[in-house]
TrEMBL record:
<keyword id="KW-0378">Hydrolase</keyword>
<dbReference type="GO" id="GO:0016787">
    <property type="term" value="F:hydrolase activity"/>
</dbReference>
<dbReference type="InterPro" id="IPR006016">
    <property type="entry name" value="UspA"/>
</dbReference>
<feature type="domain" description="UspA">
    <location>
        <begin position="21"/>
        <end position="154"/>
    </location>
</feature>
<dbReference type="InterPro" id="IPR014729">
    <property type="entry name" value="Rossmann-like_a/b/a_fold"/>
</dbReference>
<protein>
    <submittedName>
        <fullName>Adenine nucleotide alpha hydrolases-like protein</fullName>
    </submittedName>
</protein>
<dbReference type="InterPro" id="IPR006015">
    <property type="entry name" value="Universal_stress_UspA"/>
</dbReference>
<dbReference type="Pfam" id="PF00582">
    <property type="entry name" value="Usp"/>
</dbReference>
């Protein structure tokens, strides 16, 4: 389940086409999410020749199915802060802000596939092999279940 938090969205801008690239960045307020954000800006947004391929940016975060309104408000503030940073950096591309709700890895995977995202950028928490085996890794899950290119920023 997701909640579109973008104030105005023109659905025609988000149609999959050959002249643009839809890039989703999964952020969570951690250093890992920050690395994913900055990696995306430096390597996918700023380096793109806008006359050839127009980037479109989606900021995603996810909250638990059972989280309260306080968690929603905090997640909304987080997403808006990344969108504001982007504008402050002088980057003017179509941007969406989306709050997912549920199990992080499944919600991200479902959203990315449903919205025809070309590239998903997310951070790595740096789990040990044992913790990854026991808990499961979001980056590992999405790399196996998403149809798009996955970039794991370390």
């Amino acid at each position: 389940m997701h909640e579109e938090l973008t104030e105005t969205i023109n659905p025609a801008e988000w149609v999959k086409d050959l002249n643009s690239r839809i890039i989703a960045v999964a952020v969570d307020g951690s250093d890992h999410g920050d690395r994913a954000y900055y990696w995306c800006l430096q390597n996918l947004i700023k380096s793109t020749d806008a006359s050839v391929l127009k980037p479109k940016l989606i900021f995603l975060t996810c909250r638990s199915q059972h989280s309260d309104e306080v968690a929603r408000v905090e997640a909304l503030a987080l997403l808006r802060s990344y969108a504001s940073l982007t504008k402050t950096a002088g980057i003017n591309v179509p941007t969406r802000i989306v709050l997912l709700k549920g199990e992080v890895k499944r919600e991200i995977s479902d959203f990315v596939d449903t919205n025809h995202v070309d590239v998903l950028v997310l951070g790595s928490r740096g789990l040990t092999n044992i913790k990854r085996a026991l808990l499961g890794s979001t980056s590992d899950y999405v790399s196996k279940h998403c149809a798009c290119t996955i970039v794991i920023a370390k």
